[in-house]
Design brief:
One of its GO terms (cellular component) is cytoplasm. One of its GO terms (biological process) is SOS response. InterPro entries: DNA-binding_RecF, DNA-binding_RecF_CS, P-loop_NTPase, RecF/RecN/SMC_N, RecF_2. The structure is a single chain. This protein is α/β, with parallel strands linked by helices. It folds into 2 domains: 170 residues, Rossmann fold (3-Layer(aba) Sandwich), CATH 3.40.50; 140 residues, Glutathione S-transferase Yfyf (Class Pi), Chain A, domain 2 (Up-down Bundle), CATH 1.20.1050.90. 45% of the residues lie in helices and 23% in strands. It has 11 helices and 14 strands. A 6-stranded antiparallel sheet has the order 2-1-4-5-6-7, covered by helices on one side. A 5-stranded parallel sheet has the order 8-12-13-3-14, with helices on both faces. The radius of gyration is 22 Å and the shape is globular. The two termini are 25 Å apart. The structure holds adenosine-5'-triphosphate (ATP). Adenosine-5'-triphosphate binds next to helix 1.
């Protein structure tokens, strides 16, 4: 699958732009702030119906304009898929597939698999546990709709349970039986979500470690620990034990919405002890493992968006990375970089067709 052309109107910094794309490698080069990342983001937007960098739709409309349109033609299984995403101030976003408007944007997810590797991924290391859970959930959900639906049910029940705890506090009462009605519905969901996460990580971890070893060409030991209260305590016990605390806090303090992933390098948290290059290598390996996982499960090779990829990596890691993507495992790739010469020199070492767009 690949994108053959991309057309933008009033998308972020672009008034109008057209790109006829190469089937393999496309590089967008130019100075800081020129719009390289915006092009990659437009492709992400076409695939996943939202921006990777700014989920607030109106803020993706060019300043002073009323609407944006992104359209692109993908060639998938020898069929053309024309996708259009448009948004007008004050109106809902419209996504069309071959001229037909989707009733629900979620119906589009999965048609065009895309993986982005960007400096913004550092949030996965620096930010709170919800960022890492979102990543974990998005990778699993893409190929497991039961998991996705369980998560939706679970989150709804937690919201309702929290509302009940607030009601108890406001009315100075406590009804353990009413709380248990929620706990009984939550318990099987907690068990399933926890088990799916454990099983997923067992499969994902070796792929991730393998990519890290390739990029770093070293024996630096990296791993991902799945932190969860559910490893040692049953869901039923957890909810019962936390009842008093939850009453006091007025929210549910235990459950799979408190799980986290701990990223380590040589057994130490990478957040505190990893260099910038090691952190970038870690995140790149994480995203490439996501790529591999989606590819294996869906049978479709995702489009790979490499934003500012050469920044902070030493020459050795850059060349390892390029060696890796110069492989039949990968399909169409988009790269953004500030240096035309550097990009061209690196890309020329591959035996792939490429186009360079100077912005
Ligand atoms: N809604 C918008 N309307 C107009 N301009 C916008 C909008 N949103 C973002 N921009 C502009 O887009 C530019 C950023 O573009 P982008 O992030 O693609 O740059 P870049 O070429 O990747 O830069 P760098 O090399 O620094 O990463 C900024 O100048 C920003 O002001």
């Amino acid at each position: 699958m690949h994108l053959t052309n991309l057309h933008l109107i009033n998308y972020k910094s672009f008034e109008a732009a057209d790109f006829d794309l190469d089937e393999r490698i496309n590089c967008f080069v130019g100075n800081n702030g020129i719009g390289k990342t915006n092009v990659l983001d437009a492709i992400y937007h076409l695939a996943l119906t939202k921006s990777y960098f700014n989920p607030i739709t109106v803020q993706n409309i060019k300043h002073g304009e009323e609407f944006f349109v992104i359209s692109g033609e993908f060639l998938k299984n020898e069929q053309v898929e024309k996708i259009t995403v448009s948004a007008k101030r004050g109106n809902k976003k419209v996504v069309k597939r071959n001229g037909k408007i989707y009733d629900k944007l979620s119906e589009h997810i999965g048609l065009i698999p895309v993986v982005i590797i960007s400096p913004a991924d550092r949030d996965l290391i620096t930010e709170g546990s919800d960022t890492r859970r979102k990543f974990l959930d998005s990778v699993i959900s893409l190929e497991n709709s039961v998991y996705f639906n369980n998560l939706i049910k679970y989150n709804k029940l937690i919201q309702q349970r929290n509302a009940l705890l607030k009601y108890f506090a406001a009315n100075r009462k406590f009804d353990s039986a009413a709380l248990q009605v929620y706990d009984e519905q939550l318990i099987p969901l907690v068990k399933e979500i926890h088990l799916t996460r454990v099983e997923f990580l067992e499969q994902f971890l070796p792929i991730f470690k393998d990519f890290y070893a390739q990029i770093s060409s070293s024996s630096e030991e990296v791993t991902i620990h799945y932190k969860s209260d559910l490893h040692n305590t049953s869901a039923a016990q957890l909810f019962t034990q936390a009842q008093q605390k939850d009453m006091h806090l007025q929210y549910t303090s235990v459950g799979v919405h408190k799980d986290d992933l701990i990223f380590t390098l040589q057994d130490h948290p990478i957040k505190k002890y990893g260099s910038q290059g090691q952190q970038k290598s870690f995140l790149t390996a994480l995203k490439l493992a996501q790529f591999q996982f989606i590819k294996e499960r869906s049978g479709v090779t995702p489009i790979l968006l490499l934003d500012d990829i050469f920044d902070k990596l030493d020459e050795n890691r850059v060349s390892q990375l390029i060696n890796m993507v110069n492989d039949d495992r990968f399909g169409q790739i988009f790269i953004s970089d500030t240096h035309t010469d550097r990009t061209e020199a690196v890309i020329k070492t591959t035996d792939q067709s490429y186009k360079i767009f100077e912005l």
